[in-house]
Amino acid sequence: MYIKKKVPENIFQTFKENLSILREDRKIKIKPITSTDIDNYLYFLKLKYKLNPIDMLILAQGIEADIILTEDKNILKISEEKSFKEKYKAKILNWSKLARLYYTS
What we know:
Layout: H1 11-23, H2 35-46, H3 53-62, E1 67-69, H4 73-78, H5 82-87, E2 91-93, H6 95-102
Helix pairs in contact: 2-3
């Protein structure tokens, strides 16, 4: 899902419905929200790159991973921020950069 500029009013309802489908899949583990996730969310909220609330939530919870894979241009720009590089070790990559870094000889 990609949302540009205006966030639809039903975004949280749609997210909730999609999350319930994922919960039923035994291959998916739902990570509970922690106080660190909330701190991360607040950090992303203050950045000049305006992410929609769902993107911020996903990023806040996934930022402790080694690699975050996305095609979202605003999320990719965040990884270029000096403050981001100082705060987080995660690499935010798109598919083409992932392939260049890890799958080419």
